[in-house]
Amino acid sequence: MSRLCNRILLLLFFTLFSIDLFCLENGYLTKDEILLFHKQGYLIKKGCLDKKQVDEITIATQQAIENSMESLFMLSGNLKKNEESYIEIQGSRIVYRASDENISIARINGCGGLQPSLLETLQSHKMVHTFFELLGTNKIEHLICQIHPKLPFDGISFRPHRDVEFRKSFDPNWTDILGNGSWAICIIPVDSMSEKNGGLWIDTGSFGEQSQENIMWVKAEPGDMLFLHPYILHGSGPNLSDKPRRTLLTGFCAYEANHKAYPGSHVNYCFSIDSENTITKELSPWANTKIKGDGH
């Protein structure tokens, strides 16, 4: 009930003030779209990236996947079998699942290590502005910077979950300090996304006061963006098509909601914005502590 009250207060805040402290609409989303996000728990924004940007992230994403697979095959004799594990290369953590017949990549954490050019999108000023505005705060921390390869018939799927589960399991001291979830994630399709190729589904009935299950398969194209609230239930199936279904993920929380170092380089950076619209970037206090676990 308190979450609902906080969400209503947030909606009133954005409704009453046409211009807020965080230079609203300098990001990818309009004020109305931010209101809709907090009302329904998700938002799909079409055509955020142009063709040049899509081509650039496609090349960089594919290079990261190929480099990761090459490293895994070189180590194939020493990989853990039949369980999820990881290796680390060039500042990125490659989470894999291996068997006697196959090696699959579940995700690449800290993908800016393998491909720094991806940060031009995942940590861009426009992206950072979006999360200032989406969370309604002037200081945020970057936690998730990932590639999900979803190659044909690799068997990778993601069970039904709410992102808040991973935030709390990774950091037992996780705190929703803003009362609005204090976290959001942006999913950027590198390839077309649908039910047929292991796309993502959302239970639109799992958010707020709604209680009736309503599964919606997300249809999205390269350059679109899907924003998810930490309390909405979602997941994905395996890719049963003959083409990859690659995605990028970038996730930010309100500063001091998190208290742990996440795996991979170029994460745990804090971004703040002042009254003159100047953005500063610095490492969080816990960025250099020993990393345990995965964080998803």
Structural features, described:
The chain has one domain: q2cbj1_9rhob like domain (Jelly Rolls). It has 6 helices and 14 strands. The protein has helices at about 1-15, 30-40, 50-75, 120, 125-135, 165-170, and strands at about 40-45, 85-90, 90-100, 105-110, 140-150, 160, 185-190, 200-205, 215, 225-230, 235, 245-255, 270-275, 280-285. Helix 1 packs antiparallel against helix 2. The radius of gyration is 18 Å and the shape is globular. The chain starts with a helix and ends in a 13-residue tail after the last strand.
Look at the helices and sheets and give the structural class.
Answer: alpha+beta
In total, the number of strands is 14
The N- and C-terminal alpha carbons lie at a distance of 28 Å
**What fold name goes in the CATH topology slot?**
Jelly Rolls
- Strand/helix succession: HHEHEEEHHEEHEEEEEEEE
CATH class: Mainly Beta
Helix content: 10-25%
| Tally of helical segments | 6
Q: How many domain units? A: 1
- Globally, the shape reads globular
Strand percentage: 25-35%
- The residue-averaged pLDDT reads 90
Low-confidence blocks of residues? 11-19, 290-294
* Biggest β-sheet strands, sense, barrel: 10 strands, antiparallel
**What is the C-alpha radius of gyration, as a whole number of Å?**
18 Å
